[in-house]
Every structure is written in C-alpha cells, then in structure tokens.
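Figure 6 in text form: structure in, sequence out.
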C-alpha cells in the first residue's frame, strides 16, 4: 500500500470523525474546516461529546481553567 493511499485513508477517517462528532461536512477543504472549528461550537455539541464519551468532563474542566486563568467551574452534565 502506498503512502498516498494511507494518507488518503487517514484523511477520510479524520473527516468522517469531524462529521460525526462536530457536524462538519466531509466535503470542505482544509481552510474551511479550520474556519468552522475556529468559529466554535454550541454548548449542546460539547454536551453531546461528553454524553457519548468522546470528551471527558475532566478535559472540559482543564480547558476551562487554562483558558480563563481561574479555577475550573463545575460542569453539569444534566
């Protein structure tokens, strides 16, 4: 299997995960994907990632603490 084939397979798998987890269409180019990610996601998307165990509550707390410079807040999963 060539390096290009492996690279294409990994790209397709990455785009499929973006689509499944973040509802980013698989068709956009890399620049559009970057813009969509940079624009952010609604809180319901974050909650869905926690609910499906794709993202842990602890990771959310750590990110919150590091980005705000304050102690982590409580993340209510209900």
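Output sequence:
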């Amino acid at each position: 299997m060539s390096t290009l084939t492996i690279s294409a397979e990994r790209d397709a798998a990455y785009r499929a995960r973006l689509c499944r987890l973040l509802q980013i269409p698989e068709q956009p180019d890399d620049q559009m994907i970057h813009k969509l990610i940079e624009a952010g996601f609604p809180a319901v998307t974050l909650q869905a990632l926690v609910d499906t165990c794709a993202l842990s509550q602890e990771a959310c707390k750590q990110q919150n603490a590091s980005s705000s410079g304050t102690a982590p807040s409580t993340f209510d999963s209900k």
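Caption detail: The helical segments are 3-22, 30-39, 43-51, 57-68.
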